[in-house]
Amino acid sequence: MVNTFDSSESVSDLRAARFTISAYVVVALGTLVLLAILAKVDPRQAGESAWVHAVIVAFFAALLPLRMRAATAGRVAGLRAVGLIAAALFLVNVVEALLPGTFPGWMRLEMVGIAVMMAVLILLVVRIRLRSHARDAEPAAR
């Protein structure tokens, strides 16, 4: 079993993945700031479910860059973790955005935005792995 991949062949995809994760971190931290403001200005827009969602999103905003660092170093486990976290975040955000009456409208938009970012991240991870597998299979075909 191969534990590494050649990250130099996927530089643009890795750069795009890092950018997507950075955007996610900004959204996650911005959500916490907005919730803190709304808690003072309009507490109905900053309910308990919104806070729980925001804290979980912030936790993954701290975890994803760490796993991405391992992926950028060429570690398959890091890349796999990024893909799995992105898939979980995609699914959870889509489901939560569809739950009626649970979250304020602005947070539903945030959830859809996160789901889109995670879909992009999943596609990038899959593309990196496919390129890596194709490169590994080339010598065997000769």
UniProtKB/TrEMBL annotation:
Assigned keywords, A-Z: Membrane, Transmembrane, Transmembrane helix
Q: Out of the domains of life, which is the source?
A: Bacteria
Query: Which residue ranges run through the membrane?
Result: 21-38, 50-66, 78-99, 105-126
Name this polypeptide is given: Integral membrane protein
